[in-house]
Design brief:
binds iron/sulfur cluster, two-stranded antiparallel sheet, alpha+beta, about 180 residues
C-alpha cells in the first residue's frame, strides 16, 4: 500500500466532559451489548470498553475508554485537584493494567480495547455517545495531515532508506553501481 505525501486522514475522537457525567453507566451497558456475541444478546458492564470511575463522596465521575494493554503497573501515581475535586491518576488512565479489574474480558482475562464500535456498515456515532443523555460524551471527526514518517514508502524504498542510514548514501550508490555492472 502506498500513501501519497500530503494525504489527510480522518481522526475519530470522543470528547469527555466530566462535569456533565452523572455516573448513570448507560455507556457501559450500551458498549457491552454492542460487543456481545451475538450482538445485543447480553449486557455486562464488566465486558464494556468504557468504564465510569465513580466516587460519589467527592462527586467525581470519569468515563474512560479502554486503551492499550500494559504488563506492568505504575510504581508511583499522582493525584490531580481540578476545580476543587480530587482525581486519582488511575481515573484518567485508559490502560488495561494488572492493578485493576477494568478492561479485562471477565471469562478469558484478555485485555479489552475500545474499537470505536467498528462495524459494517460503520455506525455514524459510537454506541456510548448515542446513549449518553447528558452530553458528557461528544463524538468528533477531524481531518489531520499524515505526518511524513507515517507515509508508507513501500518495501524497496524502506530497504534503501535503512541501508543509506546505516552506510551513507555514497557507499550505497557505489555498491549499487558495482552490482549493476556485474
Ligand atoms: S452515559 Fe454519559 S452520563 Fe452516563 S455514565 Fe456514561 S458518560 Fe456519564
Ligand atoms: S466507542 Fe464503542 S467500543 Fe469504544 S467505548 Fe464507546 S461504545 Fe465502547
Amino acid at each position: 500500500m502506498t500513501v501519497k505525501e500530503g494525504k489527510k486522514k480522518i481522526v475519530r475522537d470522543i470528547k469527555v466532559d466530566v462535569d456533565k457525567c452523572t455516573g448513570c453507566r448507560s455507556c457501559e451497558m450500551a458498549c457491552s451489548a454492542f460487543h456481545a456475541v451475538p450482538k445485543y444478546s447480553s449486557i455486562n458492564p464488566a465486558r464494556a470498553r468504557i468504564r465510569v470511575f465513580i466516587d460519589e463522596v467527592k462527586d467525581v465521575y470519569v468515563p474512560l475508554r479502554a486503551g492499550e494493554f500494559t504488563r506492568a503497573e505504575c510504581n508511583g501515581r499522582a493525584t490531580y485537584v481540578i476545580d476543587g475535586k480530587e482525581y486519582s491518576e488511575c481515573g484518567f488512565c485508559p490502560a488495561s493494567c494488572p492493578s485493576r479489574e477494568y478492561f479485562k474480558e471477565p471469562d478469558s482475562g484478555l485485555p479489552l480495547k475500545c474499537d470505536m464500535c467498528e462495524d459494517e456498515p460503520p455506525l455514524e456515532v459510537p454506541m456510548c455517545v448515542q446513549v449518553c443523555e447528558f452530553d458528557a460524551l461528544v463524538y468528533e471527526e477531524r481531518e489531520e495531515e499524515v505526518p511524513e514518517q507515517e507515509v508508507d514508502l513501500g518495501e524497496m524504498d524502506m530497504a534503501f532508506e535503512s541501508l543509506i542510514k546505516r552506510y551513507g548514501k555514497k557507499r550505497v550508490m557505489d555498491a549499487f553501481a558495482r552490482l549493476s555492472k556485474a
